[in-house]
Amino acid sequence: MLRDKDVNKVLGILLPVVDKVITARPNSDRAMTAEDLAQKVKVFEKPVEVSKNIKDAVEKASMISGEKEAIVYAGSLYMIGEVRTLINKMNDSL
């Protein structure tokens, strides 16, 4: 998540509807670290795991989600573009 965004407001909207959070730092100079975002998530008492990058986060989310569970990706459009590319590559390899 970018540092200049209202992180607590966004988390307040998203976290009531998720079971677990995986954080990753997007490729932006304005981005928070995955560790800083994880600390903010912990305030909301949600399980959180830090990933080393977006690719790692997408792979972890795919591994831990059940067949009938939704995965929600939230972040900048640049980050979502990277996620989309990774998911398309994963689907192509099936």
From TrEMBL:
Transmembrane segments: none
Cited InterPro entries: Mur_ligase_C, Mur_ligase_C_dom_sf
Domain Mur ligase C-terminal: from-to ranges: 3-76
GO molecular function ontology, one term from the record: acid-amino acid ligase activity
Signal peptide positions (record): none
Name of the protein in its database record: Mur ligase C-terminal domain-containing protein
Species the sequence originates in: bioreactor metagenome
